[in-house]
Amino acid sequence: MANAFIRNLVFQSNNLGTEATLLLTFNGPVPGVGDHSAVVWRVSTFGSSGPYQMRATYRSQLAFTKPQVENGNIVGAATAVEINVGQQTTLTKSGQVFSFSTPAAGTAGFLKATNEAGLREDIAIGFMSPGQLLPTPTLIFEGVGDISNVTAQFTPVLRAYVTSGYQETQILRGEIQSPVLWDQDLAALPETTTWNLTRDAATGRYSITRA
Q1: DSSP assignment of 65-131, as one string?
Q2: What are 15-56's pLDDT values in tens digits?
Q3: CA 60 – CA 154 distance, rounded (Å)
Q4: CA distances from 118 to 17, 76, 86, 100, 129 (A)
Q5: Do the Cβ atoms of 41 and 168 come closer than 8 Å?
Q6: Phi/psi of residue 179, nearest 5 degrees
Q7: How far apart are CA 126 and CA 139, in angstroms?
Q8: Please, are residues 135 and 65 in contact by the beta-carbon 8 Å criterion?
Q9: What are phi and psi of 187, to 5 degrees?
Q10: How does pLDDT run across 120-151, given as a tens digit for each residue?
């Protein structure tokens, strides 16, 4: 991908005062066509006393995947293809093997995948993590009809929550019942940033601020 970038994020706490679980996900609005759900990216628990840290690395090379879903979690992918903004691809099936076509020019500013596999299929958007063969899923379009497509304008706006009961790669089928603590367009950040997770003992409110 031309002009691909990497963002290294470090979230840290020290003597937080209570145990807290931090969740990261790309669950903001996504302009485009088709119902979709966000996927939990990272989950990490910070202890009440002493120092804790979570590192997360995002790479802006996007990809479409044919995700494998079990019990509401994306556990892998049958196939995947790297794709750039302004390109489109087609999902097909030959026997038991899924494949995406080589990406071709599409609609400027959008990613597009057309399902021509013969049945309704799930299609996900993700990003290529450094050193990983398959993409990290960020959004999933479930039950895309045959000869239908998903068209999305993906902006890497990452949100952070303090919450519980979630795990990494879980599909978010509803709103997270906790306030958004942190909301950043990763494209606008420097390559590496560090963020402090703190808690106001008087109010019990959490906050995330730049270190």
Answers
A1: EEEEEETTEEEEEEEEEEE-TTEEEEEEEETTEEEEPPPEE-STT-EEEEE-SSS-EEEEEEE--TT
A2: 999 999 999 999 877 665 567 899 999 999 999 999 999 999
A3: 10
A4: 54, 21, 25, 14, 30
A5: yes
A6: -70, 150
A7: 7
A8: yes
A9: -65, -25
A10: 999 999 999 878 899 999 999 999 999 999 99
